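<given_protein>
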Amino acid sequence: MERLRSEYLVDIRITHFPLHPETPEDGLTLEELFAGGKLDVAAAKERLAGLMTQEGLPHGDRTMSYNSRLAQELASWAENRLDPGKIHDALFQAYFVQGINLARIEELVRIASQVGLAEAEAREVLETRHFRDAVDADWRRCRELGITGVPAFVVGDQRITGAQSYEILENLVLGAGAVAR
């Protein structure tokens, strides 16, 4: 997304999505999460690692899935206090690279502090759930748009779901008339 933003005049809006909202606070292994489904966890992890390597993005060998609801509420609050990419990058690193449980308030407060946000304010936002309504509105928007997975990229009436190469995303924005910087 940062590369697209640096090369084209595009407005990127992050909308929070309810990916596995029923996941308990302690999380589930990926095998537990996808048990009985058609997803080959090993193949999916290999594909995602390949795409991330190709794009120069850091990644780890994630084995767990955690409930991201509180992380979304933290991000919704933080987006108005600093560059939105900063909190999302920090949460991405914590989850996908370090395997940190983003359902835990202590972990989220630590991440908020690392990007320069006040710990006490972050804790209050998370404990009072002050941004619950904002995230609920994002979830409604996703349902209205027919989004079923993440990441999802919506440009005009075009939509792509799942991890994609830069070239595919570039073609999506160019098809909508994006102008180079």
